[in-house]
Write a structure and sequence with these properties.
Elements (H helix, E strand, L loop, with lengths): L2 H16 L11 E5 L2 E4 H17 L3 E4 H6 L12 E9 L1 H5 L6 E8 L2 E9 L4 E6 L4 E3 L2 E2 L12 E3 L6 H4 L2 E3 L4 H9 L5 E4 L4 H13 L3 E4 L15 E4 L2 H8 L4
Parallel strand pairs: 3-4, 10-11, 10-12
Antiparallel strand pairs: 1-2, 4-5, 5-6, 6-7, 7-8, 8-9, 12-14, 13-14
Helix pairs in contact: 1-2, 6-7
């Protein structure tokens, strides 16, 4: 796989389909596809532009968030052998629609049910993080490393339901983009992230990037995360095993 070529394609699509619409959306270019779940013209057009160009590089099934909305059966491709491109054309759509720059493009190359390469592209600063299995996580030539493990009272992270963890750590927040949570983890800007909603386009690339940056990631039931159709449980990502155990003990 030409990793650099995929990076270039993602950037070109972001520049052509996403950035021109940022802070320029009309009301008729935003709709609610499910309660409290927005989709914009940028989402649909970016996915439409990405899918055929990625298939030209490695022919396979495309599992895109917006395509699955139209045809949920395409998700079953993740349960079979072969090449699957997993796409979230605009992660953080609510942020995007509200003129908040905390949004990103996520692409993963999954082969036989295992993520082999993951990309997260942050369009506003035009920065891309990419990880290839066994090769580390990189941002435009700089190798990334998760934060060092620290005591609970010094940890910062992202959770949706604060629960007991908020009373034990330094700070928790949730800012509307799984992609940016993964970028913050891989760059050492936060220590942990906890997810309850495990759609493959949100996590296939990010889990690999986090692990290649040296982090620990698995479901609270102890199983490894895989980008498949029916993942049950909660996903916790931390800098290492001790911090994983410490945070997991505080989760419902």
């Amino acid at each position: 796989m030409d990793v650099a070529r995929v990076t270039a394609i993602i950037r070109e699509v972001a520049e052509a389909e996403i950035l021109p619409r940022f802070k320029n959306l009309r009301r008729d270019q935003i709709r609610e596809k499910k309660p409290n779940q927005l989709v914009t013209e940028a989402d649909t057009e970016a996915e439409r532009a990405l899918a055929p160009r990625l298939r030209e590089l490695a022919d396979g099934v495309v599992v895109g968030e917006e395509g699955v909305e139209s045809d949920p059966t395409v998700l079953s491709a993740l349960e079979r052998s072969g090449v699957v491109w997993v796409i979230d054309p605009v992660d953080g759509t609510a942020n995007f629609a509200n003129n908040n720059p905390r949004f990103a493009v996520i692409v993963a190359l999954v082969v036989d049910g295992i993520t082999q390469i993951g990309w997260i592209h942050d369009p506003v600063p035009n920065l891309t993080v990419v990880a290839e299995r066994g090769q580390g996580a990189w941002r435009d030539g700089t190798r990334l490393k998760v934060a060092a493990e620290v005591p609970l009272a010094q940890m910062t992270g992202s959770v949706k339901k604060r629960g007991r963890v908020a009373d034990q750590v330094l700070h928790v927040a949730r800012r509307g983009s799984a992609a940016h949570d993964y970028l913050d983890l891989a760059a050492g800007r936060q220590h942990f992230v906890h997810f309850r909603r495990l759609m493959p386009w949100d996590h296939a690339a990010g889990v690999l990037i986090h692990q290649e940056a040296g982090g620990s990631a698995r479901l609270l039931n102890g199983q490894d995360y895989r980008p498949v159709l029916n993942v049950e449980g909660q996903l916790l990502l931390t800098p290492g095993e001790k911090s994983w155990q410490d945070i997991a003990a505080l989760m419902d």
